[in-house]
Amino acid sequence: MVRLRDDAALYTMEGIAGGLIMLLTIYLVLGTTMVFTTGDSHISDMRFKQEASDILRVIDTPKDLTGSLQPNQSDLERIVSTTDIPREFSNSFRAHLSNSSVAAKTTLISGNAIQIDVNVSYVTSTGLVIGYNLTPRSYPPGLLNQVPGVMVTHWVYYNGGTGGTSKPPNTPSSMQSGPQPLLVEVYLWKA
Amino acid sequence: MRTIEKSTGLLSLDFVAGFTIFILSLVMVANFIPSLLVGLQRSRNIDFDAVAYRTGVILVEDPGQGRPFTGFVENGTGVPGNQGQNISWDRIRPSEVDRLGLAVARGVPNILSINKINRFFCTTAFGDADYRSKMLFSSYQYGYNITLQNLSPMQSGDLALNLSVGTGVYPSAGFGYIRRYVLIKQNPAVNLDLLTHGDRGKFDMGGPGVNLSQANQVFTVRLNGSTLYNRSIDAPYNLDMQTEPLIIRLTNFRSTLNNSAMSFTKRPAQNTTLNNCPSNCQTSGCCYYKGANLTGVTFTRPDPGGIVDKYGNITPWGQPYSARVDNVDFIGSRMLVTDNISVTVYLDADAISNSRDVDVNFIFNDAVPQTLIGGILPYDYNKANVQRPDLATGMLEVGIW
Hints:
The complex is a heterodimer. Chain A is of the alpha+beta class. Chain A is built from 4 helices and 4 strands; from the N terminus they run H-H-H-H-E-E-E-E.
């Protein structure tokens, strides 16, 4: 008769099976997961912001001198001091982006895929800072502030129109007449 | 049978198995963590992007720098009096350029000079080593590609920009790039269409005017020092004789020939025939206006007691001077003009100052038919006299791999 003893016996076959299953799980999970760190995504944002900043600068640079040899009004100054119902600002902004078709062939930003929100801020007589939309919005209300994007800003000097005593058309009633600095904030995101 | 009374020093087999599995898991997790964080892994691409960004900034926001002038751009012979001046890098020898930058001036980023652009993309002047040591500033052998194209049209008569320089086309992946939108300042020019400007048949700007009884007819373009030295005008818009060429183009020259002293010649049919040929010539069907005789283009100072500086003293160095008559280089002492004259010249950096003017004189002799062009055209900010093109928009791209 053979007497069985428990010397050198493996007590928990289930334990080993469970361990192997856990190993397999870890292998699968780690092998199929990617975590995008902020170090990677900021480059395309940086590039987008640089392009937006350049375009805003191009639009805000006079192309010529006036008769009295002063720099002429820039496109941005002209658009801010008139009404932008025809969306001239966002159209010229997009026109620059959609012209991009040369060397760098990947991750091109198409002008049509860009949403633009242009906010102009002024200071009221009581010292409050209030903003209004320069260009009519073309996206669903409430979408702003829900999507990640970039913002570029420029200060624009409004000369007060003819005679220096008026204010841009279609602006809120709290805006003062006459020459004043205006802050143009352009918020862009990829739709 | 041997029995072990005490279990001291024994390792349970269960413990060994469990410990092995745990260690295996630990090794696997540690092994996987770096590949889990994609952003940290791609440090090389981040480097490409950073170099592309830096190169873009140097090109777009910096005017570049050269060492003080020691000689001509092309042939290396110096002009005494010009030495030691700080001259824009696009006018000096490539070996004396320290940094390539395309901006018109300091403090006006994104506004590029067309002369610097043309010089920068001139691969016969700059080679691969120059671009690496004066633009990339790195010992690492990056691949690079710089392209520039205009978005709005250039001034009429100029070709569209579609320039590129580099080590080849972009790779399919693994490159960094940056795109910059820019404005381009183009060269001003006197573009005088004599047919449409003023009375047909006579172009007289005033001043000494046309006097057919004198031996020579002289038409002058006057560069007024105090006008051109006006530093209150911003660099992107000014007429800058120190960095830009003086360009004078007279077209439709035959419209200013003296009709009352009209003379014709028989020549091989190469020009357009005219309607009012004399009958003896008409029968042969090959008569043309004789042109006026251009005997010289001189540069003088109109100051009291002014010294006549022949071309060579106030015009400077390099390939700067070109005078063409009917699209042929002006050589010798006189040439017949029937259609156009164009002069392009870089003036010496100290040729014009607040109190020093320069006259560019086109001298025609008395040969029939005398020309009826005369007087003094001021080179100034009046667009009827000097055409200053609007800033053109463009796009510069830098790719690094």
